[in-house]
Amino acid sequence: MKKEVKTNAMRILEKEKVEYQSLSYPHGKDAVDGVTVARLTGRNPDYVFKTLVTVSNKKEYYVFCIPVACELDLKKAAKAVGAKSLEMIPVKDINKVTGYIRGGCSPVGMKKKYPVTLHKTAESNPVIMVSGGKIGSQIQCAPEDLRRVTGGQFADVVKERAD
User: Fold this and answer.
1) Which tens digit of pLDDT belongs to each residue from 7-50?
2) Superfamily of domain 35-155
């Protein structure tokens, strides 16, 4: 029986006494998009969140967790964190800023503690699933537990969907 390899994010959740479920999904060397991750793990895409890192005009970093099928609204996001403007960090800077790689970036356990905002829909979800800290790994827990551990907030930060 193969022993589960714990990620830094998992160790932090355990230290904080957060109940979570670890899930894995098949992948190659590259990350797969979040909607595919939801399908591969058999989860509702509304409960699977991607982690995005932005930088403000003052060179401050902010982390946003939004449903995988949504797009971050940079104006709403800036307003939520009190920044004049935000932009996505370049992919080449993800590891340097967070300690994670693209496709395996978790809001838990980054190199430094950055302000975290979870999209407001997480608040009413029974669970939320985010990256476990490496490609192929996801963690599922109660949204309030994730907010508490990250010191985050809930806010409306996505573009309206034209369903």
Assistant:
1) 999 999 999 999 999 999 887 666 678 888 888 899 999 999 99
2) YbaK/aminoacyl-tRNA synthetase-associated domain (3.90.960.10)
